[in-house]
Amino acid sequence: MLMRKVLFLLLAVLCVAGQAFAQSRNLTGKVTDGKDGSPIPGATIQVKGTTRGTATTPDGSFSLQVTANDVLVVSFIGYESKQVPVGAATTLTIALSTDSKSLDEVVVTGYTLEKKVNSTIAASTITGAKVNNISLPDVNQMLQGNASGISVSTNSGQPGSKTEVRVRGIGSVSASNSPLYVLDGIIMSSGDFTQNTPSQDILSNLNPADIENITILKDASATALYGSRGSNGVVVITTKTGKKGQSRINFNGKFGFQNLAKSIPMMNATELLQYQRDGLANVLNADGSRKYSDADIKKFRPDHLADYNTDWMDLAFRTGKTQSYGVNASGGNEKTTFYASGDYFKQDGILIGSNFSRYAGRLNVDHKFNDKFDLSVKMSGTYTDQNSAGPGNSYSSPLMGAITQVPWIPAKDENGNPYIGYVSGQPGSPTWAGVADIPDAWRPTLQGGNFLHTVANNYRKNNNTQTIFNAALGYNIIEGLRFVVKGNAELTNIREKQWTAPNSYDGRNYSGYLYNGNSSIGLYTTQQLLTYNFSINKDHNFRLLAGNEYSYQNWTYTLYAKNGFPGNQLQVPDVGANLFDGAGSERAYAFQGLIGKADYDYKSKYFLSASYRRDGSSRFPKDARYGNFYSVGAAWRITEEEFAKNISWLNDLKLRSSYGIMGNAEGLGKYPDFPFRGLYSLSGAYLGETAAFANQPGNPNLSWEKQNLFDIGLDFSVLNRRVYGSIGFYDKRSSALLMELPLSMTTGFEAINMNVGKMMNQGFEVTIGGIPVATKNFTWTSDLNFATLRNKVLDLGGQQAIPAGSRQRIEVGRPFGSWYMPVWYGVDPQTGSPLWVGNDGKPTASYTEAQNNRQFVGQALPKITGGWTNKINYKEFDLSVLITFSAGNKAYNSNRANLESDGSNTRNQAKDALDHWQKPGDISDRPKVVFGSITGNQISSRYLEDVSYARIRNLTLGYTLPKRLLSNMKLQSLRVYAQAENLYTLTSYKGWDPDINTNPLPPTSTASVATTNAGVDFYRYPTSRVFTFGISVGL
Amino acid sequence: MKYPKLSILALTAATAFSACNSKLDIAPSNALDNESAVTEANARILANGLYERAQELEYYGRDFNVVTDVTGNDMKITAANSNRFLYEFQYIFTPLTASQSKTWLNAYRVANQASVIIDKLPETATTKEYKGEAYFMRALAHFDLARRYTRPYSQMKNDATKPNTGVPLAMKAVDNPATFKPTRATLKETYDAIISDLKAAKNLAPDGATKTEKVFRGSKAAASALLTRAYLYVGDTALANDPNWQAVIDEATPLINAFPLWSDANYLANYTTNNPTSEDIFSLRFLTPENRGADNFGNIYLPNDGTSTSGYGDVRLNQNFMSLLEAADYRNTVVKTFSGNNYMMKWVGNGLGLTGMSNVKVLRVSEVLLNRAEAYMRQGNLQLAVNDISNLRQHRGLSAFTAADFNSVRAELIKQRRLELVGEGFGATDLFRFMGKRSITDADALRQSEILPTSQYVAFPIPQTEIDANPNIVQNPGYNK
Prior knowledge:
Chain A is mainly beta. Helix content of chain A is 9%, strand content 47%. The longest helix of chain A is centred in the N-terminal third of the chain and has 13 residues, at 2-14. Chain B has 481 residues and is mainly alpha-helical. Chain B has one domain: Serine Threonine Protein Phosphatase 5, Tetratricopeptide repeat, CATH 1.25.40.390. The termini of chain B are far apart.
């Protein structure tokens, strides 16, 4: 059967020239689904090599003029396209089988497109369909659990905020660890470009509905092409293009709601009252007598405080709505194809005062002028609108208010309007009548006012307008030799507006103030690529690439503020009386590189590849500006060997390996674009004149950070493709690490940018999938991916260790991001005192002694991450479950230090704190509560918690209308579904959410923990649980 | 056919696009390279940089003065607080507590910027005055470091020549920061360096003059005033004929004649104005660009009373201080009583509408006068000391002082220093210099224990980050247990 088909194909190819002379006749037939025999309406039937064709009618039949030598190419979305020679038949029934992924998977490197089977590259691909399932605005969040070796964590659950993605561990100490993002072959801007917003990612401008697939490049073969910036991995995103044939229009609608997945139970009014009274009773004078008598305690904390019982956490969080609607259309003919889309997305954050919406449109057009020239144009425009809640380190923010404000103060008056909270006489101020009988220093107040009032009157808005123009002109010089010139302009404008009302807590001393910020970012890239694909003797295939790339980014920003507003109604700078803050500057950087790649394969059995890139960056001094990066790779498709061909159960087995050197130049120091220069800042002022001060020490020897990456892997597919997957191992070694090396502060500087040290990341990446059950009506596929990470610091330029903040330490022989702090021992059962590990490992009640006996107590980087997807199809129903997991790391729950403070603060406490030591002989985890004493809640491993978790990230139940019903409605497809995200999390972590960003900050980072949450849960906006219902219609 | 075409194309592509090196030369927009910045033309803005750095939040921007006062005897923090300065108030600070490491850094930033101005700029008529200012600021920076991280000279006496009793001295511009890891000088060397810098400043700096804008920059007068402080601290309190006492008097007398004392009953008005007052010898001026909102200096002192000048209200005046005030004292205007507590209003603002942002007074003639009085007292010239004290009292609405025995004069001197200089960063320095005991008994003050003048806590610990980066530094005793 196979041989016959092959012969016919050969004949067809050879007889192309003779086509015109053959006789034509009418051919009728039917196109059906290979599994159930149902007809496929709208399937495209094309006569190969001509423009003749037709489409099937609603009952799947077709009629076409053909000649005997014609070959029909039959295709339809979701099915493998089939080529059927006409031969002598007058009727044909053509059965199409559904698309089998593994064989046709392509690997997109951004510069090249290769079939996965022919590639030496280690990469993970995520299809557009998976990406679109997630109801979150950021494309990064869609990567979580879907690809091995990728670790995704968010700084904040705020919609639109920055997500941290790490590919194969952390390669750098001070320079950026984020991967490169490539859109349609061009590197795009990523990260937070805002000046006055707690957290926002410019990537949230990307509309996920436009994504065809995402390929994550992990090994040297692929990332060496990105040379200087590829060391952290590359996320390659390809947008959809049109396909010739019938035009298609799709409509997607989704709506739902989200809420706080896990709350932290807080004390109520009576519980807190008892807790603080216990604390007061335990305060002792130097001679051991009680400092406060019972009468004192009754006076400081009278019973009537419990008259009000405000649940601040309930007031701070809400159920937010989420919705998205989109339309896309694609189609075209032999010469021109197009894809167009328009989308709207809106999500209300679960914290009051936060939301995110996005309007996006795209048009991709591909046009073939003739055999020589073709043009591809992609244009997209996006507008996003983000409203941020105040950052977690601000007292007036609902995030902090939820877990600090005491329940004894009412939030709203009888009419339901929120009290302002700090105004004289109001609940929350020291002069409120409700606390008048309490001595002044003991009156409970609302620090920061009432956040309900703040959120109702103040806002922090952020609008992004981003347009991306991408044009590529291709010239096919001769057979196999092609030249492409590409130009890309990514223009982003960020406008920020922060309004603080005159009567709000933050604005009270200024008569309100208004901050206006504006950032313009332009990223211009041009590429010239020459590719040459040719074969020698049919068995030796070559693919060669040579190219040049230049990119330039310009970032201009200004920020100014006015205060002195009369009231709330007019909120523009004109109305403010005084100009009281102003700043602005420009930044720019440029990259230029030469690229070369060569691939060779022999009979698709043995593969060799090599790539080279020479990169120069404006970030390095003239003498050390250029770096050379290269890679070599090889692969062996074992199943193509003769001995393997007879093993029936083995479908595909490929061994691949690569080695290469890449670089890193991103994001270092106070002036990330000029890390080597000794600089004096002129942004200071004194007496109304400029003040210049030394701000960065120079290092003229600064150069690229280098990474050596070795990769080896085995891709397999067995048992009729019922079981498939890949197992790989990587070893990534960074040297000449770009580090902000701490200096003696007697130099006037805190740190200097240096190339110092070596670090290693090693791990296994496993992807296994299978189809345990596949019958006519029921299929079950299961895919598991996980990756292990072993990170170790190998060298620190002669030093044994570098301290990183007050909780971590970078030491040779240990992973980066190792926790180093006093070790919590427990509570002394006799006295209730907190105990730490002291000298000689013995418990001590002296915190100073504990600080001198700090130990390594765990790491911040996870040891294993992964995801497990199960998909079940029964007739027209589909059910899929994605479980993501991460294990082996710890985070510092700083919130708990305040929530279980043993009496050191007067804020509200978690209900857990009720369980504490009370009398001699008690065994408890929590020490005696002593009002006003800071002892037990200082930095120690007491608050260092394991953040391993497994989470049902996505659970979707869908129903696809069967084709016979569809044809009656003149629709191509219709699917309805219900979806739950972050449904349930299994973890021992006591905070809101274990999915916090644990990527360690460099030692001298000035980034605020409140917005980066690097390893520390400090009032982090929690991730929400989302329920949505959606419908997809194809016309 | 294929290969030649390919190679030609490749070559042209390579040559055409590899000549882009110049396009990669991009310079920063808001900063200058070292070579372009340190030039004679920029002498003034570099000098401005000295004051800009001194205005950092953790230095004179707020923390330095607040910590000195909160660790003294006149202030308290109660249960109603915003979680600031608790470690300092309760004397449970450790090498890892952050607020001291930034103070250390900022003082050295000032010292190093001064060294660059002194060493790297050419000696011309234009740069002479700026070098004078630089000498003054460098001395001030080292002096503040000494006040914070070393024990009082009067306690150390002969031990002042022991190693690791002072602070590392930044007396020369550092060319290679990565290898500069100095050891601590002795306490005597530290003060010797301070005094020699001040003498150099007296030579080069511009003249100072009362009620002029010159008080906002270093000047001969400022150097002279700081010298009175330096000589006073260094003097041996057991020796009546220590030459330091006379040195204090010699420096102080011209200043007292040139800068008149305030005499108006509205004592507070001298703090809430943006203009230089008659007593100011050196102040740091804060204008709108230096506004820090809730982090302004005054905010921590201003009561949470819901008015337009409300602040955190964390740091309040305690019973020890209030018991010193007599009813007729003009300095009562500085105290605001709200809801049963007493708040110090010196730093409510300098009239620019930004709450808590004030001009920070670093050197005033009142301090110089009290320094001279103390020097007279140490010399044994009790009557001259009493004259000076009475002079101040009479300018503050009080009657003259009449006692003439050493103990009474000493007690009155301490009392006047506290009343006059409260909130201006003298609290703990004066307390331990006079071998006093820190003891706060207010019922609503946060729990803290008594601190004797011999306690290890009198000298703050050197920040742990410094010790980790510089293995040549030896920590103050008592913090390594």
